[in-house]
């Protein structure tokens, strides 16, 4: 597994890096069979340290965790516990689905745009009806089953996930509804 351990405007020592590799490696290897890479970022927020961890699995799923603490090691330990809990739940759900994925998830390329929000206080007519594009990025669309898509959306903490349905070979969307249930759009 590849590790990328960095700090935003703080210096990360060798001792912390080796501690992160051993502890995170043990937690991930316990619950995930083929992790590909892990990204750990430490930063400061006022008097607290913040640890953000992202682990990519060969199945295409991504687990993320974030924790705050007054000490940097305590922030990592809390983040590591959250990551371990997510991976434990993920493994339990995989067992519940009784499905083995032998091949990694296939990813398709797509464009992702961020559009500028309209000013709520502006009462004047806009100059054009075309939205202002703030950012244009490349993104990946995974090929998943509906159950795996819901699991990926929950692991990422995202409100919506676009995926290519393995069973029907078309683009689908799962999203969290206002009532707490999951919606599925299958065009």
TrEMBL record:
GO terms for biological process: negative regulation of translational elongation. It is found in: Cytoplasm. Residues 130-183 form the Sigma 54 modulation/S30EA ribosomal protein C-terminal domain. The keyword Cytoplasm applies. GO terms for molecular function: ribosomal small subunit binding. GO terms for cellular component: cytosolic small ribosomal subunit. Gene3D superfamilies: Ribosome hibernation promotion factor-like, Sigma 54 modulation/S30EA ribosomal protein, C-terminal domain. InterPro entries: HPF/YfiA_ribosome-assoc, HPF_long/plastid, RHF-like, RHF/RaiA, Ribosom_S30AE_C, Ribosom_S30AE_C_sf. Its main location: cytoplasm. Residues 73-100 form a coiled coil. SUPFAM superfamilies: Ribosome binding protein Y (YfiA homologue). Keywords: Coiled coil, Cytoplasm, Translation regulation. CDD domains: RaiA. Belongs to the HPF/YfiA ribosome-associated protein family. Long HPF subfamily. Interacts with 100S ribosomes. Required for dimerization of active 70S ribosomes into 100S ribosomes in stationary phase; 100S ribosomes are translationally inactive and sometimes present during exponential growth. This is Ribosome hibernation promoting factor. The gene is yvyD.
């Amino acid at each position: 597994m590849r590790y990328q351990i960095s700090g935003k405007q703080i210096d990360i020592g060798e001792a912390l890096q080796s501690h992160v590799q051993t502890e995170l490696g043990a937690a991930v290897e316990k619950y995930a069979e083929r992790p590909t890479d892990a990204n750990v970022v430490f930063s400061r927020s006022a008097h607290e340290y913040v640890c953000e961890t992202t682990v990519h699995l060969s199945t295409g799923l991504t687990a993320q965790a974030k924790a705050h603490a007054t000490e940097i090691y305590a922030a990592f330990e809390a983040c590591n516990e959250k990551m371990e809990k997510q991976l434990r739940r993920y493994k339990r759900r995989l067992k519940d689905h009784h499905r083995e994925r032998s091949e990694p998830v296939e990813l398709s390329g797509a464009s992702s745009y961020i559009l500028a929000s309209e000013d709520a206080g502006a009462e004047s007519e806009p100059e054009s009806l075309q939205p202002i594009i703030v950012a244009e990025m490349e993104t990946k669309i995974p090929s998943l089953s509906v159950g795996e898509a819901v699991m990926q959306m929950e692991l990422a903490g995202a409100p919506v996930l676009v995926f290519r349905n393995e069973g029907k070979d078309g683009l689908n969307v799962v999203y969290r509804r206002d009532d707490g249930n999951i919606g599925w759009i299958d065009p």
